[in-house]
Predict the 3D structure of the following.
Amino acid sequence: MPIASLTETLQFASDGFINGAFYGLIGLSFGLIVAVTGRFHFAWAVAFAISGYFAAYLINHNQFAILPAVLIGVAGGVLFSVLLELLVYRPVARRAGPNALLGVFVASFGITIAGQALIQLIVQSRIASEPLNWIPIDSQDVGGVTFTTLDIWAVGVFWACAVLTWALLRFTPLGREIEAVRVNPMMARVVGIRTGRTYVVVFVIGSLLGGIAAIFFAMDNAATADMGTEPVFYAFVVAFLAGLGSSPLWIMLVGTLLGVVEGLSAELFSPQWQTVVVFGILLALLVIKAAHAWRPTVFRIPAALAR
Amino acid sequence: MEEFFTHADVVAIFAIYAISLNLLLGVAGQISIAHAAFGAVGAYSTGYLVVIQDWSFFPAFWVGIAAALVVGLLMSLPALYLDVRYLILLTLALSTALLAVVGAIPELGGSYGLRDVPNLEIFGTTYDDPSEFFRPLIVLALLVLAICSLIAYSPYGRVLRAIRDDELATRGVGKNVILYKVTVFGITSAMAGLAGIMLLYFNRSAQPGAFDLAVSMQIIAMVVIGGAGNLLGSILGATLLVLLEPFLQDVVNMSPTNAALTQLTIYGALIAAFLLVRPQGLLPESWTPAAAVRALRRSPPERPESEEVAPPKPSPRLAETAGPPPTSDGGNPEAVLEASDLKKYFGGIHAADGLSLRLPRGRVTGLIGPNGAGKTTVFNLLTGVIPLDEGKVWLHGQDITGWTLNRIANAGMARSYQDVRIYPRMSVLENVMIAVPDQPGERLPNALFRRIRTHEGEKEARQKALEHLEFVGLSARADKLAGELAFGEQKVVALARLLATEAEVLLLDEPASGIDIDWVETMLGLIAELRERGKSICVVEHNLHVVERIADSVYFMETGTITAEGTVRELMQQERLAEVYFGSA
């Protein structure tokens, strides 16, 4: 299908850039947890929903002011993730031994299903989706390319979060602890780092980033109990495309690139093919990665992908 | 009655999914979270041919099965080389991409799916209501159960379980792991395709949502809750999860919406609960109806059996042969293994740097050196676990450079491991039987169709394994789970497994480490006896007293290269070597 016009292309690219910042932040949120703790925290989707949905719910049904509701929502998502780590993931990993990763993933998926259904059961008499009106959605136009005030805020906040996370990991003792645990948890324990505590800290940071993304998601779309389902897949994709343990800024760039490619693919093919393109890219890269593992000298790939 | 058969049909369809996934995940240890997506391949292929192209059932059915098989085989190839994190991601990406593709193609109905699928018609008989549909369905479900059981409980299945428990050790006893993994992935994908086709005819439609990730995870939940590795458990898991929603709706009188949400809440929570408190599921892997009946009839023992086991004493003959080794000038027998100029660099680290050695026939050769000298790496290089950068290896005069671990094991050189690497969930006897070469039942056609031949081969393998266990003094523990043995016993089981490979050249990595003095004596006696039997042995060992007692000659290794050769006594008389060894060890 031919490209209609330059403005239309720029519009798709702009939409992709905005969506990409969101993908980058959720990829960072999810990827940080997987990279450091080794937990496939699929129930990130529920933490995301708790943050966004309950913030909106408290405002709409309990007359909470916006800021306290948002803080409570995000704190709820963080608390949920931390409790999962302490009460479910850690014991499951201990029991599963070498199969800990799969065990935690399956348990996490179970919690996701149960969590989303439970939210719906609890609020079944209420409206299924909850709007969250905070930052205005005024339309802005720059050379025919339109976006909203909310989009500008979202991109700014997402990138600021990524820069802060990057600075935290790079320049603080806590960041060095996290890096040490990520690279070699056993050696980290030997030198006196409490890895269990570091895991909890990482769940807090990861869920906090996810919670911020969820608030903006809820403002842009309506909040629902299963609002985390699609984002968690994108978080998976971005985290692994960027490479586990990569710099937060690199993850943001990869997320942005994915958003732009996805946006342009909607113009090149059709919106129905966007998911195919995103997961097709992931599938292709995984096949290349496998080929590299099979014949490293024949199939050379960048170091980030080889991780 | 119609409602009963409606539920029974769904249970049977999901039982096919769950049994086949259990063979893949529970028995073979291969991860797939795209099982329902393979069902989609079968359903959409068949549906497209029947609805759009007006094909009759059977040709379309076989094309659907074949399509799922091909996609499964293709998926298994990258899966071979990815670790578990990426395997989860690969199957997730496949599942999502496949369903996005079928949802984006208008000919396949887009997001609404394929509709107006005709009633199932086989040989002129139409199966148009749930009770009639149940008849061919139950036949197919039983067929899948029979095939999976024949595979799982045969020597072929034993290899699958060995791959699940320790892939490297399984390659090390000569099994072509790749072939097994690809085959089981293909077979189970085809079975998932079958389940998808039956779901297509049951619903008389196919929507992407019927095959999405949630359904795949529901099938995993059936396997986890029923019991991974137990095929009957999968039927139980499928029954429980499928019937939960109608139970809540019809018995507890919940509204359909509440029943659906409560069912999701319960089964999601059940998955986590089972992984926390009963990871083996409702039916553990070893559970069978017959075993349950036997356990009920058996009266409990008056007092628990003691787990303290004394090591078998070496026979007087063994003790005699385990005396001081001959000096290095005692002749120069033919070399069975020669390695020349081996090089392996990991960045700036020279793990092997121009290393050459030869193992004489019927002798014990020691390989000693300080920590980090690269001794275990040498074993890894000789057996193909790590590819060489440069150099050549000859076994019985044949160039085996670049061969895989299993090919080298079949050619006559096998190795043990510092960390034992036994299969903890298998019996001691099975641990040894797995290594017996050329078992007819390890070939899939034999396991499925030539049962008498398989049975005879199994008897022969059992006999051989028992002989090896008799030799190492553990035949009385043959039926014990290997994981329940003491570490010293596990080392001896690993040695028996090594012997069962019938390899002439044995590489023993730290055979005496981590075990007490009695077990060390036993191990030394066994190694000496093996030398008497003509085996050519290379031992990596830190304990110099052990090496001194068993090795005819010794190589001294430092930073990836051999720097001296002689007896232990001769080498340790050299001040520099003694300082290098004891200063760093």
Observations:
- Chain B touches chain A at residues 31, 77-82, 84-86, 88-90, 92-94, 96-97, 100-101, 103-104, 110, 214, 217, 220-221, 224, 257-258, 261-262, 264-272, 275-276, 279 (CB under 8 Å).
- The CA atoms of residues 335 and 557 of chain B lie 19 Å apart.
- The first strand of chain B starts at residue 120 and ends at 122.
